[in-house]
Amino acid sequence: MYYHFGDIDRVLEPQEVDFIANRTDFVCIEKSHAFNSLGDAVLGTKHEVEAFHKVKPEAKVLFYYNSYVAWPFTRFNKDLTPKGIAKNKELAKFLAIDPKTGKLLEKTNGPAFSYYFDALNPEFRKWWVASALEGIKISGADGIFVDRMNVDEKAGYHVDDLAELARAKGEMMAALKEGIPDKILVGNNAARTKEVFPHCDAFMFEHYNATVTNKENLLKEWNDMVRIAKAGKISIYRFGAKGKGRNDITMGATKTGGIEQRSKEQLEFYHACYLIGAQPYSYFQWNWGWNLEDGNLVDYPALRKPLGKPKGAFKRENPEGWVFTREFEHASVWVDTEARKAKITWH
User: Fold this and answer.
1) 65 near 132, Cβ under 8 Å?
2) Of 62, 91, 137, 182, which residue is least crowded by CB atoms under 10 Å?
């Protein structure tokens, strides 16, 4: 299991640290953790790194940093706001321009107003890498989770040349990895970005909406997981339970009534999808959002059962069909990714 969460208002209570540490040794502290109480997500991460290392010294705890959205929750980004740029216009050179308006590109949804970074600016890339390394150092983190590492037409970048952007991101990750040779670098949704792949130690498959959980993409991802394992790297397979009437599962559904029960009902299908493709160095994440309260403190007994070793790779019942099976020492897995049904039989 991999856990990834944050609470913008506070740090974890000791019993919450214990709950999570009993289920995982691989954790990332999300972008705005403890910002309202400590004023800096770097300090929020530092607090939890120390808390987890105290109860589980071998735990790997990651610092979060975004490569595209200039979230204002860290000391590095705190002045990348309208007020901050009004005081120091020089900061605007790090930010992307809206091609339609000629003004700074704005992100108005999510946990806070934000601008976007301009990764095509070499000066920005140097600054960003230095900031990321400083965040890891100050927090004492065992590595870093770098968000927005996929470079494709669906990723929503406001640039004309995606190939140039991919090269720029690859350069950033190469410089970052050089600075943390013994720590973990996770690239979110980066498994198919060839410029980035060599420099990352791990890749998250975020599954942020129904499009990336369709049957065709799931099959591609299982092959991606084999490729990643052969390279000696880590896969993180993150799924989120969906609230009633929701397609987007990125932001969670904390206020949606009955979501905890739905998460328990939906788990078996997504758990099976993970197990079909799981390889050495594979991790599974299950919740319904990135906030601490979005399922990260819910007990899912099925995720604590002993699985045992796989008896082989998955099998496809029909070369043209979408039913897959796989056997483990202590479980038999069956999933139909077209009908979106699954059964895990525990022995």
Assistant:
1) yes
2) 182
